[in-house]
Amino acid sequence: MVLTGRAAVLAAIGAVVVAAAVPTTAGVLLVTGVVVALALADVALAGSPRSLRLSRDGDHTARLGTTATVRLGVRNDGRHRVRGLLRDAWPPSAGCATDRVALDVPARERRLIETSLRPTRRGDRTADRVTVRSIGPLGLAGRQVSHSVPWTVRVLPPFHARRHLPSRLARLREIDGRSAVRVRGQGTEFDSLREYVRGDDVRSIDWRATARHGGVVVRTWRPERDRHVLIVLDTGRTSAGRVGDEPRLDAAIDTALLLGALAARAGDRVDLLAFDRQVRADVARLGATDVLGRMVGTLAVLEPELLETDYRQLTAEVLARARQHALVVIVTGLDSGAVELGLLPVIGQLTRRHTVVVASVADPRLASLAAGRGDSDAVYAAAAAEHDRLARARLAELLSRRGAHVVDQPPADLPPAVADAYLELKATGRL
Amino acid sequence: MSGAITVAPESRPLDPTGADHWRRWRKPLAVVVLLLVTAVILGIVQSRASRGYLDPEGVDNAGARALARLLTEQGVEVEPVRTHADATAAAGPGDTVLVTVPDLLTTAQVDRLVDTGARLVLVAAQVRVPDYAPGLSAVLVDEPRSVDPACELAVAERAGSARLGGLGYDGDVSRSEGARCYLVDGEPVLAVTATQSGSPVVLLGTADPLTNEYLDDDGNAALALGLLGESERLVWYRPLPEGAAESPAAFTDQLPGWVRAAAWQLAAAALLAALWRARRLGRLVREPLPVVVRASETTEGRARLYRRGRSRAHAAALLRSAAIRRLAATAHLPAGEPGPAAVGTLAATLAGRTGRPAAEIVALLAGPPPADDAALVRLADDLDALENADVPRATGASPTGKDPRPS
């Protein structure tokens, strides 16, 4: 049972009646009794919110920054009209513009309520309860019931780095095309035989085929396809730190998406692993067709864990997944002692068998702090920033010395930089 | 309006119905009812056992039910009162008023009680004694014990020894048929005298002879009956702490009746409004919040530590080694660990490119730590100036300066 403001107003008007007509205790009791009796009658006459049947349909996914629409069907199975207020409760980060709407459903009819969501954060947003407040004909009181109508909208990462994809794909085609005239080398594979055209390298003439064919035939080569690319996201505590307005992990996800899309288009096999102390996400064997969809779906619910990443176990996981030579891209942050103590000792095991790229999300704030001048506070901050930059540089150097390729860029530049590193490795046949 | 709804997830009302409420709460309710019943029964039993000091219905040690019964059997009409108004209304000339805590009354109340003309029996009166009986004052004496009457008061002589003590009454009792009995430490514990208006007052230094505990000891019962059973009516006044009854009528009493009624009705309206606002439209929704910590948090913390510790030497060394690293990179020198020799080589190169003396550059890059904060700020600016002076040359003179490996 619920009361409305009208009941309180009626009781307040009753005060005038009491004062003018019956200024006694009995008068107060009488007027209040009348108000309460009217309210009770209203409750009895209100349509039962319990007899409503609710159902949902609409969007299951939304990219961060776009709007998702979820429709709520309200069917009245009861015998009375249900009139009142409905609240479709969503968590605040689901970005529900208006969660309460006026409701008027005659008996045996159905209404459709549209809720538009504009989520403010990545991940699963689960609808909470739908609460219906049915008010009686007098508008004094009513009944209220909450319904469970489960629905989940998965908010996908925005993939801002998408805009870098066309240029990188063009570059990929360029590499592919150029490779036709390349001579055989490491990391290339036999592509096809074709007729000799002027300008071809005479060393690539296939004499056996030439003898069989009649004309001069050359072999063409291309960078090896179907290589194995393993993207490893560090979801440990360093990934929780905010760079700008986003956690590091979001930049790492963007990087993984761009690289995954590019590598899949290049015909490579892409695996994805998110790890801190245990496997948080594991997507294997991504084909070219569904790579983005599956990666995005998996990465959407990834959250940073406040744990120290266990790099020893991470190495074991990587080695278990990549038995053949593979490109291992570890996306992490270089600025903590965790990497120095954790990744550095085990990076050798990885570089011995695989090509390793360590992609690190750098913080542009370090640069702005390091440029601070003018007063002693700013200079002390600059010194602290220089300390961290020197430590990062030294760490990057140590990692490079152990055979890893280090890409250390701020969030916006990291995805294209890693994609470029991949293309560079591919072009030079080092995958 | 209604579209084709694919009924994927079916709804389920969650709030319990009335029957659910009853099923859920009947057991706790039963426990609460049981507790209440037990409490009420215990309360009734307890109230008979312990009702307070000199209560005519009290059956515990400090009560006086036995005495009240005895008095009733003797034909005395006992009338228990609690308020001063009741006491003054009930008492009249010829009656006896027993005041169990005489000190609780204000001077004005004492005066009005005295003005009734009733005979007063005061138990353990102390500070108000002069108000009741002018000329007398209370003094502390030994604890109650069995004492002989030692006076010619008929009641006392009949009773013989009784348990008395506590307070004695010093002063002149000769106004009218006064008596000083039961001397303890030389002071009478039972004093009979008269009030200002001449009505008799009996001052009793302790309540012990009247209580259930000691009533059947010595001559206590006889003494109590003698003191209290003298008249036909006994007003048994157990005072309550009362404010001054003369306070002016309350503000609310001066308002017209309709204001009070309207106020109550408005209060009812406020209650309804509170109930209206109190009911939420559905429960609060949980939001799992992400961790919000800046990646540069540790850097800023370190900066604060430097600042607080005034570690200028450390800060200067960091700024210098960062500058050396950058300068070495632009000068295409090997970026190794910066040592004095490396700084010397670098300074020589820079001197050639910027035109500044090498010694000055060495002093800037590897000089002593700054003496104060101002010197540190200057050092940072000087390092910037050196780097800025170097950069245009390095990029501008690219064909020749492309690979200026110094010997």
Overall mean confidence score, pLDDT of chain B: 81
Quote the CATH topology of the domain at 65-237 in chain B: Rossmann fold
What is the CATH C-level name of the domain at 65-237 in chain B? Alpha Beta
What is the alpha-carbon Rg of chain A in Å?
Answer: 33 Å
- What CATH architecture label of the largest domain in chain A applies? 3-Layer(aba) Sandwich
Strand order of the largest sheet of chain A: 18-17-14-19-20-21
Estimate what percentage of residues of chain A fall within beta strands: 25-35%
Assign the CATH superfamily of the largest domain in chain A. von Willebrand factor, type A domain
- CATH fold-level name of the largest domain in chain A: Rossmann fold
Share of residues in helices of chain A: 25-40%
Most residues in contact: chain pair: A-B, 97 and 70 residues
Low-confidence stretches of chain B: 1-8, 393-407
Low-confidence stretches of chain A: none
Multimeric status of the protein: heterodimer
Kindly state the mean pLDDT of chain A as a whole number? 88
- By helix and strand content of chain A, what is the structural category? alpha/beta
